[in-house]
C-alpha cells in the first residue's frame, strides 16, 4: 500500500507532456480572457505554471518546432496551434512594461501599490485588449494611481483606443487620361487680308 502511495506521489511530481489538446485548451482560455495570466491558466487546467512556461520557451526558442512528436498522445504538434500558443499570455509578458509607462517609480517600488495598479490595469485591459495600444499611446507623465482611467478620464482613454485602432478605408482614385485628337479650328479672320485669303 505504501508502494502505491509513493508511486502516486512520484507520478504527480513528473511533468506533464505537451499535446495538441492541451495547447488548444490553453489557446481557448486565452482567447476567452485576453488578460489571463499563465498562473491563472495553469490553475484552471490543473497543470503546473512552470510546465506551461517551459513549453512556451521551448517553442519560441526553436528547440521544439511544429511537428514535435514527443507528445502525450503521440501525435505531432500542429503548426497553427504552435503559432497561436507562442503568442498567448501577451498581457502577462508586457504588463510590467505598461505599468512602467503609466505609474511612478515610487508606486512601482511599493509592493502593495504595484499589486493594486496591476489589478486595475488588468481590469482596463479587459475593456481595451490591445498590447500595442498600451505600449505606444502617449498617456502623459506617469501617475501615482491609474484608477483615474476607470473614472473621470475613461472617455479620453476610450477616444485614444478608438483612434489607435481606426483603419482608414478609402477608394483610391485612378486617373486615366487619354489625349483626344481634336480637329483643327479654322482661324477667325482678324484683318481684311484674312477675308481676302479665304
The residue-averaged pLDDT reads: 82
Tell me the overall shape: elongated
Proportion of beta-strand residues: under 5%
Distance between the termini: 129 Å
Give the topology string: H per helix, E per strand: HHHHHHHHHHH
Number of domains: 2
Structural class: mainly alpha
Work out the number of β strands. 0
Q: Work out the oligomeric state of the chains in this entry.
A: single chain
How many individual helices? 11
What do you see in this structure?
This protein is an all-alpha fold. The chain has two domains: 70 residues; 76 residues, no CATH class. The chain is built from eleven helices and no strands. The radius of gyration is 32 Å and the shape is elongated.
Amino acid at each position: 500500500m505504501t508502494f502505491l502511495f509513493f508511486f502516486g506521489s512520484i507520478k504527480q511530481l513528473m511533468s506533464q507532456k505537451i499535446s495538441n489538446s492541451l495547447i488548444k485548451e490553453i489557446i481557448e482560455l486565452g482567447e476567452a480572457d485576453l488578460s489571463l495570466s499563465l498562473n491563472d491558466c495553469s490553475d484552471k487546467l490543473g497543470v503546473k505554471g512552470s510546465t506551461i512556461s517551459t513549453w512556451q520557451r521551448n517553442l519560441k526558442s526553436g528547440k521544439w518546432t511544429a511537428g514535435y512528436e514527443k507528445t502525450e498522445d503521440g501525435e505531432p504538434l500542429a503548426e497553427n496551434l504552435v503559432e497561436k500558443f507562442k503568442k498567448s499570455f501577451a498581457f502577462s509578458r508586457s504588463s510590467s512594461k505598461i505599468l512602467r509607462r503609466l505609474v511612478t517609480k515610487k508606486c512601482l517600488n511599493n509592493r502593495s501599490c504595484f499589486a493594486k495598479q496591476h489589478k486595475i490595469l488588468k481590469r482596463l485591459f479587459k475593456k481595451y485588449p490591445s498590447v500595442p495600444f498600451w505600449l505606444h499611446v502617449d498617456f502623459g507623465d506617469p501617475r501615482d494611481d491609474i484608477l483615474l482611467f476607470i473614472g473621470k478620464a475613461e472617455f479620453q482613454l476610450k477616444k485614444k483606443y478608438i483612434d489607435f485602432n481606426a483603419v482608414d478605408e478609402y477608394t483610391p482614385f485612378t486617373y486615366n487620361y487619354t489625349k483626344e485628337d481634336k480637329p483643327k479650328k479654322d482661324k477667325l479672320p482678324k484683318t481684311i487680308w484674312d477675308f481676302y485669303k479665304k
